[in-house]
């Protein structure tokens, strides 16, 4: 009976709350994304690193030099010279380094996505816990009301001297235990809201969602893995680092080309002067030694690391997916079995008719209640495991 009452209440609640209520979890996640201090700090770091990357592709500072030589023994006038020059690497180096900078900026954005998911996954789990607590509270409140009614009935029988003090005390303790469970749930709820508030940059979170907005269905493992492989930041970051390493090889190869210098030179003596362009070339015979090989070695390392990361994540994914399927089968068994039972109502009727003692009633009642509580616990664990499997979608 209790099972059917709870299902009916949940259905009515869902209809009353509506679409906005069922998406309250998403609203909380968006708020945390905006207010989380760790994410804000990383955004500032990203901007700093972007500017740092761009500065690495700047031209060297121009050089200005001047000579005025009035001293010494000479029959001609004083000698003067003025020169302005600009050094720069071979033009293709700047193009290659520009592409390398673009790759690095993409990596920064992917790293932000990874950190963002590390923040939002715990937040989503807290929301799942809160929803599960709300469902448990409804059940416990119904149980508490039943326990109160039973206690009042036993109190009447005790007043009529039809039962002893021990049975009265047992009924009172059963009622007190249900009251304590409600208080425990409220304490857990407050702690979870504090955890969300911490993730939300210290701003309070209002959360009163009482039903799960999504079902427990998952696509097949192959389909999910292909999506995860293509979008999960942990994998995509590693693949992106391969692109960065490959682009670094191109940069180092281009840096083997000559560095160039161009400028203007003016020389004057005895009223005569000479002016013209100035040019120079610097051949990197020594500065580029082994740098291409080092870049190639980093690229090979990154390829191996990507392979290792992907293999490890695939293994973890399969473990989670298999565990999910096992728990889902168990959950379906619990729901199918409990939906067809009317045990609590039958037990209450048997007790009220005097067919069983209070102790027998209480012991049997606990058996069915534990089964129902286990079902709620499995439901919560399934939603949390689903959140972990679909973490890449956050």
Automatic annotation (TrEMBL):
Give the UniProt subcellular location, in the record's own words: Cell outer membrane
Give the signal sequence positions: 1-20
UniProt superkingdom: Bacteria
Per its UniProt record, what SUPFAM superfamilies does this chain match?
Outer membrane efflux proteins (OEP)
- Has keyword Electron transport? no
What stretches pass through the bilayer? none
State the UniProt keywords alphabetically.
Cell outer membrane, Membrane, Signal, Transmembrane, Transmembrane beta strand
Q: Which PANTHER family match?
A: OUTER MEMBRANE PROTEIN TOLC
This chain belongs to the protein called Transporter
This protein's species is Marivirga lumbricoides
């Amino acid at each position: 009976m209790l099972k059917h009452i709870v299902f009916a209440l949940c259905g009515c609640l869902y209809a009353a709350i509506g679409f906005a209520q069922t998406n309250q979890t998403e609203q909380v996640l968006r708020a945390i994304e905006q207010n989380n201090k760790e994410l804000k700090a990383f955004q500032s770091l990203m901007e700093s690193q972007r500017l740092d990357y761009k500065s690495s592709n700047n031209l060297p500072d121009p050089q200005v030099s001047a000579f005025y030589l009035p001293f010494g023994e000479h029959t001609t006038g004083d000698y003067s010279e003025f020169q302005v020059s600009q050094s720069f690497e071979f033009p293709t180096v700047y193009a290659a380094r520009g592409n390398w900078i673009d790759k690095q900026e993409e990596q920064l954005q992917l790293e932000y996505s990874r950190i963002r998911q590390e923040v939002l996954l715990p937040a989503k789990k807290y929301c799942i816990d809160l929803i599960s607590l709300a469902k448990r509270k409804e059940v416990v409140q119904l149980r508490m009301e039943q326990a109160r009614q039973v206690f009042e009935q036993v109190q009447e029988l005790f007043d009529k001297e039809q039962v002893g003090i021990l049975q009265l005390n047992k009924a009172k303790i059963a009622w007190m235990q249900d009251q304590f469970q409600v208080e425990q749930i409220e304490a857990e709820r407050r702690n979870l809201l504090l955890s969300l508030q911490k993730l939300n940059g210290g701003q309070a979170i209002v959360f009163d969602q009482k039903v799960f907005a999504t079902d427990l269905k998952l696509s097949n493992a192959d389909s999910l893995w292909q999506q995860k492989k293509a979008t999960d930041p942990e994998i995509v970051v590693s693949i992106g680092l391969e692109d960065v390493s490959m682009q670094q090889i191109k940069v180092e190869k281009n840096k083997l080309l000559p560095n160039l210098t161009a400028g203007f030179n003016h020389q004057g003596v005895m009223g005569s002067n000479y002016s013209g362009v100035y040019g120079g070339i610097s051949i990197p015979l020594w500065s580029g030694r082994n740098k291409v090989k080092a870049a190639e070695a980093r690229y090979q390392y990154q390829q191996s690391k990507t392979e290792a990361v992907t293999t490890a994540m695939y293994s973890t994914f399969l473990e989670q997916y298999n565990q999910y399927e096992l728990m889902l089968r168990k959950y379906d068994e619990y729901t199918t079995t409990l939906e067809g039972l009317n045990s609590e109502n039958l037990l209450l009727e048997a007790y009220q008719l005097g067919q069983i003692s209070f102790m027998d009633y209480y012991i049997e009642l606990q058996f069915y209640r534990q089964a129902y509580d286990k079902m709620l616990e499995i439901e919560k664990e399934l939603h949390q495991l689903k959140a972990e499997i679909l973490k890449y979608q956050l």
